[in-house]
Design a protein that fits this description.
- With 242 residues, the chain is α/β, with parallel strands linked by helices.
- It has a domain at 6-91 and 157-237: P-loop containing nucleotide triphosphate hydrolases (Rossmann fold).
- It has helices spanning 46-53, 76-82, 97-106, 114-123, 140-152, 170-187, 198-204, 231-237; strands at 6-17, 20-31, 35-39, 61-66, 69-70, 83-87, 158-162, 190-194, 207-212, 215-221.
- Strand 4 (61-66) and strand 5 (69-70) form a beta hairpin.
- Helix 3 (97-106) packs parallel to helix 5 and helix 5 (140-152) packs parallel to helix 6 (170-187).
- The longest helix has 18 residues, at 170-187.
- Bound molecules: adenosine-5'-diphosphate (ADP) and magnesium ion.
- Residues 17-18, 20, 22, 40, 42-48 line the site of adenosine-5'-diphosphate (ADP).
Length: 242
Amino acid sequence: MTADASAITFENVNYSAEDIHILKSITGSVPEGKITTLVGPSGAGKTTLFKLCNGLQSPDSGNIFVKGKQIDHYEPVELRRSVGIALQKATMISGSVRENLELPLKLQESELAVDRAKELLNMVGLDDTFLQKKTKDLSGGQRQKLSIARTLVNRPDILLLDEITSSLDSVSRQDIEELIIKINNQNGTTILWITHNLQQALSIGDYTWVMMDGEVVETGESSFLRNPQNDRVKQFVRGEIE
Ligand SMILES: Nc1ncnc2c1ncn2[C@@H]1O[C@H](COP(=O)(O)OP(=O)(O)O)[C@@H](O)[C@H]1O
Ligand SMILES: [Mg+2]
């Protein structure tokens, strides 16, 4: 097997907050253009790892490289353009879909052309009529699609998804899964996806990382989840560790 190019590389990354050692010597590479799923019990440090990847927090020691460049060499705007993030709770401003879609560019004092707005909506499976709709009238699945469309405004090379299907019904969940696979296929976008759903991690992921207590304890092609080597990971996939 040849080594894939790396979208994000972690070298001995440590991070503490309030004297708690949250991330412990994280080392590993997220391969470019692939879908990597990230699973592990609540409190393992998954979300914290994301915050380091888009510059919300900085490591206490170690290095993070985004597309080969050290993360603290990025301008904040440049990093936000390269690394998009979507969260379980898709936060919206009150107002229209269009106003929400425009937000990332408004922050850069730029504007979003109507055609581009429609293209983005269509990409996530929402037709043109959604442009004028109020976000308060959207379903959970539609809000999540809008949230994804909004992260695509900047054409990120890397998308970080944090439990984005956790509060959706199974039909909407499947819809979003297909959408992310499409974005990965069509744009070659690197996906790093935190999920609680092991079946999802297995079926969607090319690769999977299991995190526990601030450490990456097992990684590989996602199929290893069927037969993990690490004893704690075995317990975790059997549902014995929440
Ligand atoms: N700012 C903070 N101050 C103190 N503890 C924090 C802070 N942020 C996260 N933690 C703790 O770090 C651990 C990892 O949290 P998190 O990254 O949210 O885990 P996960 O996403 O895997 O559930 C948890 O124990 C959490 O309580
Ligand atoms: Mg989390």
